[in-house]
Amino acid sequence: MSDRATRLVIVGAGPRAVMLVERLLARRTRSPHPHLHVTLVDPHPPGAGRIWRRDQSPLLKLNSMARDVTVFTDETCTIAGPVRSGPSLIEWAERVRAGSLPDVEIDDPDLEAELRTLRGDSFPTRRLQSVYLDWFWRRTVAIAPPGVEVHWHQGAVEWVDDTAEGYEVALADGIRLPAEIVVYALGHNGREPDGETLALIAAAADAGLTYVPPSFTADADLSALGAGDDVIVRGMGLAAVDAIVLLAEGRGGRFSRTPDGTLRYSPSGREPRLHLGSRRGVPYRSKVSSELRGDPPAREVLTPAAVAELLARPGTIDFLDDVWPLIARELVWGHYRELFTGHPERVRVSWDVFRETLREVDGDTAALRRAVAEVVPDPLDRFDVPALDVPLGDEIFADAAEVHRRIRRHIADDLHLRTAPERSTAQALFLTILSSFLALSDIPVERWSARSRAVDLPVTWHTFFSYVASGPPAHRLEEIGALADAGVVRFLGPDVAVGVAEGRFVASSPRVPGDVRAEALVDAWLPGAGAAASDNPALRELATRHGREVHVSDETFSGSLGRIDTDADGRVLARDGVAHETLFAIGPFTAGMEAGAFTRPRSNALSLRITDRVAGAVSEAVAVVSERRWAYPR
């Protein structure tokens, strides 16, 4: 390494970290002082990181199709940095199969078999995704311009000290890495338990029960859940689906098709009995496989003009009061545009006529339902947001068997709506909610009310978006239905509450008589935000020493977001609110709009725009440090 090289340390080496490196190196060809030394520090392999690492169960999959995964910019990206295109996951697989990527070697027969049969609409395993991300990492390093060195150090950062020349990054193995610039790209992290979780840990210990707190399912210890044990699983999102997979098929059970195409599950006898419950009482909606048949999506309600009008108002913008009604109406317009223009044989009037009806009843759910009943004969073609969000409504159930049958029927209906080619309104709904998500990024974070920033956006909206648009692959819900038919899974109903009584965990729904008692409980969701309480010492130190958690306060709410405060370009804000010139952070632990890491191709993805913007700011910092080094060499 040249004595004049600027030293950049990136804390983390997962997808976002490597994507940042790619964006940074794409700019280096313009630098008059190209000498740069980049070190990524992570216990897990670069590219994949912890979440997507190869060393995990082959049963765990992405909830995105292979054609919908990329780490590369493309011609749709509105970014300042150079566009450097590359293959999506399916395009990469096709090139590997064709022999045009000789730097990809797969020595695992299962992975090789998966790659040979991968299609654009396949849901790849996380292990295959790790191979794609590993190739992306090696490609990024291989095409680094002259004077740039990029390395991975396998280890964990514990803290970062200030020095006269910048920073010293302290690793758990005792190594100290000097740096002029540090970027935290830590991805998702756990946190120390608090509140109800802490109370359940204590109660379980006192009663000799088994409790699995919120965690990343691939890292959770499920070994204590024995064959035939009754286990309450609270949560019905992606983490719950992963847990079900590991506790059923992962224990040796097998799925098969009957002659009429019905999926059946043959237990191994090693499975526990899983009692599933959540607030809604139903799983997240499955991913959509239909294609649009009608007019292309277009924002009719949450338009750029509507956003501009909100921004022109004085004061803060409240998500629930000001924006959510626009999103809800937009979803209705998106659904019915596709139904009336793509399937005119299933409605009694034209789209032009129904548009006028929509304008009259827009925002009035009762009036909408009455109007729709007159012109849309099939109940499965009818749509409104409350029915989407709370599919069980206010139903009261006679007993556990009735609620189980009702949820089983809901899963079957959802699968039909999301996978049948003739039900393309589900695809329109997906594209509409995705467009709404992107529209929110046009509202600066500082304009939101405190309650919106702390609760409504990261919890209420994010959970609803995930429930509608980021659920499991359809075959996972079909498998849950088969597990329910086999008696391995039982459904508890909505608004499930869990406590400890008489030495057992007790789960109950206020709308179902009786309760379920078990000696084990799994809280199947990811740990909440909490940088200062993180189980990652580097993030804890960042939150309490170099930076701060975002605190918001107004007449509606006061509290911490649990996320690191940065400016729009990723610079960490110090305790006094001043932005560090050479300390950056990017990822879900920061307070900006979270958009994941890899994304859909040709969608002008928010994640790529954010990563490119932060890379631009890091490049500017590198340029300043480099000029200083060349002017005053050591």
UniProtKB/TrEMBL annotation:
Coiled-coil residue spans: none
FAD-dependent urate hydroxylase HpyO/Asp monooxygenase CreE-like FAD/NAD(P)-binding domain mapped to chain residues: 9-188
Highest taxon above the source species: Bacteria
Classification via InterPro entries: FAD/NAD-bd_sf (IPR036188), HpyO/CreE_NAD-binding (IPR038732), L-asp_N-monooxygenase_NS-form (IPR052189)
UniProt lineage: Bacteria, Bacillati, Actinomycetota, Actinomycetes, Micrococcales
Record-given protein name: FAD-dependent urate hydroxylase HpyO/Asp monooxygenase CreE-like FAD/NAD(P)-binding domain-containing protein
UniProt-listed PANTHER family: BLR0577 PROTEIN (PTHR40254)
Pfam families according to UniProt: NAD_binding_9
